[in-house]
Design goal:
The longest helix is centred in the middle third of the chain and has 15 residues, at about 175-190. The strands form 4 sheets. Strands 1, 2, 3, 4, 7, 15 and 16 form a 7-stranded mixed sheet that branches. A 5-stranded mixed sheet has the order 12-9-13-8-14. The chain folds into 2 domains: about 5-155 and about 310-375, Periplasmic binding protein-like II (D-Maltodextrin-Binding Protein, domain 2); about 155-305 and about 385-420, D-Maltodextrin-Binding Protein, domain 2, CATH 3.40.190. With about 425 residues, it is an alpha/beta fold. About 40% of the residues lie in helices and about 15% in strands. It contains 18 helices and 16 strands. Keywords: Signal, Transport. This is Extracellular solute-binding protein. It comes from Streptomyces mesophilus.
Length: about 425
């Protein structure tokens, strides 16, 4: 496994520097008062989107009601900036948060660098047996736990029921059916069938899985992204664009896709539960929420499959408020807060018990996404997991713009992985 700075040395350096920097609380180490009350400041970096951040801020600040002597400072950090921003702050021992909402692929990366505090044996991990196994898997690195699971998700096909009905088409279950449906939608309304994210390599994965492929075989330590399914996946995406069944972009895909879908410029989009609230705010769904349909991702030639995603909560190793931070993570990943998150945002809990709550059982998006999550493909939980995406992004842009062939795209990904993963073949 590729490592940069020695983890042991880096943790020691952070500990020595903690009195001068640590979290953003400016010097209050936190802990327990003489009366046994929890004290200190917890700076929480929230990476949720615009439709979610108000809810997360309210939930996070609710911790202060339980612990009046703890000051919770919620800082919204855009998802696209959060990874690099945290590494810069933690690596420079200045300005890192006490707690961060970490994408599942970031945990092993940050832990490998020594930036995260192990949570085993701390208050942060409460009732661990209640966590979904696949959610808990993303919190482990080198036999230690560096995060508490907060939400779990996967991708699905969002569709405009009225646009499909008006065009006389059923919900597509395969890529071929997407193309056929798109042609009828164009003839009926002049609108495009599908929005294809061309800027985010995460959205390449359903096509790769759909052709029977994967990025790596971690059990054999083999690179598989450049096998035949990798080239087929690029070819399928390129064909959707070339055939006019889909439109795509090379930047700001999240907002472009969401706006196009909620405004009725496209009939379908592959997206996740984090976009539900944003979609429902659009003119196509605001006054007709039942018009939003959700279905499994369309199958490729081999199968229908989508990646496991989600968010965890991690504690910075150099935090000056470790006791308060552990308790904050416990609170934010508790069954009660997860239930509130689902009720307000339709995001999926990581605790088994929350799925037994009636309001969660009755949530239509949970009813679809939970079975989809159960069948989702786990990504490689290795230190380099997040770095696996950049080579795909570069090659995806080359292929979709016609500057490179699908075969060359897959080969390019494989060559980049060989440089990144020294112990893989």
């Amino acid at each position: 496994m590729r490592r940069g700075i020695s983890t042991t040395a880096l943790v020691a350096a952070i500990a020595l520097a903690a009195t001068a920097c640590g979290g953003d609380d400016g010097g209050d180490k936190g802990g327990k008062s003489a009366g046994g009350e929890l004290t200190g400041t917890v700076t929480f970096w929230d990476t949720s989107n615009d439709a979610e951040k108000a809810t997360y801020k309210e939930l996070a600040e609710g911790f202060e009601k339980l612990h009046p002597k703890v000051d919770v400072k919620v800082v919204t950090v855009p998802f696209g900036e959060a990874n690099a921003k945290f590494k810069n702050a933690a690596g420079g021992n200045s300005g890192a948060p006490d707690v961060m909402r970490t994408e599942v692929a970031w945990v092993a990366d940050f832990a490998n660098l020594g930036y995260l505090a192990p949570l085993d044996g701390t208050a942060a991990l409460d009732n661990e047996g209640d966590y979904l196994e696949q959610a808990a898997a993303s919190t482990k690195f080198n036999d230690k736990t560096y995060a508490a699971p907060q939400t779990i998700d996967t991708l699905a096909l969002f569709y405009n029921k009225k646009m499909l009905k008006d065009a006389g088409v059923e919900v597509p279950t395969s890529v071929d059916e997407v193309k056929a449906a798109a042609e009828k939608i164009k003839d009926k309304s002049g609108k495009t069938g599908l929005y294809l994210r061309g800027d985010d390599p995460y959205f390449y994965l359903p096509y790769l899985y759909g052709e029977g492929g994967d990025l790596l075989d971690t059990s054999k330590k083999e690179i598989t992204a450049d096998d035949e399914p990798g080239a087929k996946a690029f070819a399928v995406m390129k064909d959707l664009v070339d055939s006019k069944a889909a439109i795509t972009d090379a930047s700001d895909g999240y907002n472009n896709q969401l706006n196009a879908f909620k405004d009725g410029e496209v009939a379908m989009a592959i997206d996740g539960p984090w976009s539900i609230e944003g979609a429902l705010a659009g003119k196509q769904f605001k006054d007709a929420k039942d018009n939003l349909g959700v279905a499994p991702v369309p199958a490729g030639s081999a199968r229908a499959a989508s990646p496991q995603g989600g968010w965890n909560l991690s504690v910075y190793a150099g935090s000056k408020s470790l006791d308060a931070s552990y308790e904050f993570v416990k609170y934010m990943s508790s069954a009660k807060v997860q239930q509130q998150t689902t009720e307000k945002l339709s995001l999926l809990p990581t605790r088994k018990s929350v799925y037994e709550v009636q309001s969660v059982k009755d949530n239509q998006m949970v009813q679809f996404f939970k079975p989809a999550v159960d069948k989702s493909v786990q990504r490689p939980w290795i230190a380099e997991a997040n770095a696996l995406f950049e080579p795909i992004r570069l090659q995806m842009q080359q292929v979709l713009s016609g500057k490179s062939s699908p075969e060359a795209g897959a080969k390019g990904v494989g060559e980049a992985y060989k440089k990144l993963l020294k112990d893989y073949k």
